[in-house]
Amino acid sequence: MSAPSIDAPRTPQGGRRTRQRSNFELYSWLFMRISGLVLVFLVLGHLFIMNILDGGVQRINFAFVAGRWASPFWQAWDLTMLWLAMLHGTNGMRTIINDYAERDQTRFWLKMLLYVSAAFIILLGTLVIFTFDPNIG
Amino acid sequence: MATTTPVGTLYRGGEGMWTWVLHRVTGVAVFFFLFVHVLDTALVRVSPEAYDLVIATYKTPIVNLLEVGLVGAVLYHALNGLRVILVDFWSRGPRYQRQMTWVIAGVWLVVMIPGTYYMMIHTVEALFGSTP
Question: Would the CB atoms of A51 and B67 count as touching at under 8 Å?
């Protein structure tokens, strides 16, 4: 087996790349950095409050959640965190699938599974935040 | 048998490659936890009892230890993400990427040592008893 050759950057690929030019990967790259910056504050703040502050996880129960979600501030915090974290994570998983799944079919179905399950989790989480009822049960 | 020429890869090891590997591993782990975490939180829509029951597992010693691992993974991913942003957007980022690796390792330790203490203190006292 001979060593694979690597073309110089911007070498024309026989028209393959000129067929459709989309900036999707550029925006995806930018989104990872912007959402990542916001998530540093939202997620580390969340982990600090939930796991370290004031007794940490030991004090969490239904009443604790009801107290927090009585405030629109924490509802907005959790909703933003849910959407950004899921989109950031899903886009990261998409990159990893593209990197390691070599067969076209495998790549396609893994990504379909990823998108369907991510959409389900985002919608479920959104529904839970908006329809939370402290007097349930 | 083994060829000494690296074939089919541009990666040659070093801090830059291992921070990247760890970034992927922690990212995937946190993503799978996020799925579980949204599902367990969704139990607040079922009943307070169902939610409190599943949250009780988060307070057990083994899961408590896993939480320390989760926080460590998220913290590494956050710090290294900031390093990646600096490498991409700061003109001197690429030149200082190695130094930044040691800075984030230091910050990680400085946060994780007291963090682990506060996360584990209740579990340690419950397991080994505390002086009244």
Answer: yes
CATH class of A24-131: mainly alpha
Sorted by where each begins, the domain ranges of chain A are 24-131
The residue to which tokens 């993974």 are assigned: B73
Residue A83 CA to residue A89 CA, distance in Å, equals 10
Which CATH number is associated with domain B15-123?
1.20.1300.10
Among partner residues B5, B30, B119, which is closest to A56 by beta-carbon distance?
B119
B72 part of contact set with chain A, CB < 8 Å? no
B93: nearest Cα among B105, B80, B106 = B80
ipTM, two decimals, is 0.85
**Reported pTM:** 0.86
B36: part of which helix (H) or strand (E)? helix B15-41
B2 CB contacts (<8 Å, ≥6 apart)? none
A14 vs A66, which has greater pLDDT? Answer: A66
Question: Nearest CA to A113 among A97, A127, A95?
Answer: A97
Domain ranges of chain B: 15-123
Q: Which residue has the tokens 């922690």?
A: B26
**Which residue among A51, A90, A92 places its CB closest to the CB of B71?**
A51
Alpha carbon distance B105, B87 (integer Å): 16
Question: The tokens of A5 are what?
Answer: 């050759």
Contact predicate A42/A84, CB 8 Å: yes
CA-based nearest residue in chain A for residue B60: A58
Per-residue pLDDT of A46-96, as tens digits, reads: 999 999 988 889 899 999 999 999 999 999 999 999 999 999 999 999 999
